[in-house]
Amino acid sequence: MEANDAFKQAITNGYQTTGKAIQLGSALFNGTPQAGLFVNLPLKTLNRHGLIAGATGTGKTVTLQIIAEQMCANGIPVLLMDLKGDLSGIARAGTTNPKIEERHAAIGIPFAPSATTTEFLSISQQPGVRLRATVSEFGPVLFSKILDLNETQQGIVAMLFKFADDHHLPLLDLKDFKQLLQYSTDQGKDEIQKQYGNIAPASVSTILRKVIELETQGAEQFFGEKSFEVSDLIRTDINGKGIASVMRLSDIQDRPKLFSTFMLCLLAEVYNSFPEAGDLEKPKLCIFIDEAHLIFNEASKALLDQIEAIVKLIRSKGVGLYFCTQNPYDIPDAVLAQLGLKVQHALRAFTEKDRKAIKKTAENYPISEFYKTDELLTSLGIGQALVSALNEKGIPTPLAAVHLRAPLSRIGVLNEQELSETIGGSKLVAKYNEAIDRESAFEILTAKLKEAANEEEETEEETQERKKPAKEEKSIIEKASENTMVRQIGRTVFKEVARGLLGVLGLGGTTKKKKKGWF
To answer: Is the peptide bond before 360 cis (omega within 30 degrees of 0)?
Structure first.
């Protein structure tokens, strides 16, 4: 069914752009795509963040891939958080088929398969460019928030960071910080308390348990050197197209603490490193976070507050954040309010609770004279979505149901050989994949503790030596007894010797009587 003039005019005026834009697809009118009636996303407002939501199987991840590859085609680098492992296909050109040809004919856009230059990154043992950060780079505030410490414990962490800075103790990995905790309650206790204040052993024990909890989720692989430079995320290829950095996270889905730690560190580093940019013609970088509920569901309140603050401020650095999740209410209200682009795929109403959620979701979108939003949310097909964006002036566009284009890259995962080829051609692998374990707080403090232990052992030996009793003088009685005994023994020996000699000479012994008749 062809759209009426009022609908055409509303879509044209709402999504018309004077600068460069992404063609997301064509508008739907009564369920029919209107060829050439494009829904465009201006590059200028892509740093205002976005949301891609919808039930399982409605095409959220494919929509993420479409937007990301179109950003790269327009010279905007992207970072993709790939928790399911199905975004690697962006590195290879897609293939056409009758369904794709039919879809693009209905939209009015030709289909020309192409690949996106891609880097594969990893914070675990998966192949790819290894991302690391040092404990020092987190700083005491952020590190405390990750560990979910109370105010007293945060103060101790700040004190220990200050002590490490003042005494040139590099805090590079978790074993450095754990050794510093041990030192603060052992040999260094008096030194630290004298200069910085008292440290409660119970608080140190709690902090140590929190560090171990983080360590059990694999964080020891993330903390260390060489630190990843976020400037490597904003590279373009030789043709001026943005490079897609795909973060392989499929093996940490069950470790949300590590994922939250990584995300917070990355966002904080991007915010601190990038200069203020104001309103640019296009963003410097866009970050897509698939399965975003993993960040927010497991995050502490302190961590959520930090993320919310960064989301509100990072736009001015020329960075856009895009969250992909099933339900918009997986995202905190403070973050949801900052998202200029909303792409809502179909929702399913299987229960009374689902129907209430759909009505509530419909209220998040502009009122439209052409759609009944709550009914449309349950009738959208795969590859169709409701879209609300910001135009070039930052004004919300009219609500549009969109028949989305297909990705130009492959839908699905790369095989092991393709993955190895892509990683093998990376210039960043040689830069970051060699682990560096230089002398840091662990080695320095271990040497101090060992030296102190040796000194203590030597001191103890000297003390024991001094405590040994001197050789006691014998009493007069004992001496006299000994002398008497010696004299007795001497006389006895003399007698026996004399008797022996006299016997030999025939002079000794008792004189016997002469036998009769002998003379």
So the answer is: no
Q: Where are the beta strands (DSSP E) in 304-431?
A: 319-325, 341-344, 384-388, 400-404
Last residue of a domain, one of 406, 432, 458: 432
Domain hosting 161: range is 135-222
According to DSSP, the residues that pair with 404 across neighbouring strands are: 25
- pLDDT tens column, 336-359: 889 999 999 998 877 878 888 888
Whether residue 310 lies inside any domain: the answer is yes
Beta carbons within 8 Å of 221's beta carbon, 6+ residues apart: 123, 124, 125
**Does the model's pTM come out above 0.90?**
no
| 57 and 195 belong to one structural domain | no
How far from the centroid of its chain's Cα atoms is residue 314's Cα?
19
Largest CA distance in the chain: 180
Q: Is residue 232 part of a domain?
A: yes
Confidence of residue 468 (pLDDT cuts 50, 70, 90): low
| Number of domains observed in the structure of the chain | 2
Contacts of 17 (CB under 8 A, 6+ apart): 40, 42, 391, 392
* Helix (H/G/I), strand (E/B), else coil: 26: strand
The CATH code of the domain that includes 264 is 3.40.50.300
> Is the domain of 142 the same as that of 121?
no
Same domain, 101 and 154: no
What are the C-alpha distances in Å from 149 to residues 152, 338, 486? 8, 28, 81
- Give a yes or no: residue 494 inside a domain: no
What pLDDT digit, counting tens, does each position of 260-317 carry? 778 888 888 898 899 998 788 999 999 999 888 877 776 667 778 878 888 888 999 9
Edge to edge, the sheet with strand 118-122 lists 32-42, 21-29, 400-404, 384-388, 341-344, 50-53, 319-325, 285-290, 78-82, 244-248, 118-122, 129-130
For residues 13 and 37, membership in a common domain is answered with: yes
Q: Helix and strand tally (H, E) in the chain?
A: 18, 12
Where does residue 266 fall: left (phi above 0), alpha (psi -120 to 50 degrees), or beta otherwise? alpha
> Quick check: is 511 in a domain?
no
Q: Domain boundary at 222, 247, 276, which?
A: 222
Q: Which pair of structure tokens corresponds to residue 210?
A: 């929190």
- Give the dihedral of Cα atoms 305, 270, 227, 255; nearest 10 deg: 40
Do 236 and 253 lie in one domain? The reply is yes
For residue 388, the one-letter residue type is S
Strand ranges, E, within 4-117 = 21-29, 32-42, 50-53, 78-82
Q: Which residues pair with 33 in a beta bridge?
A: 28
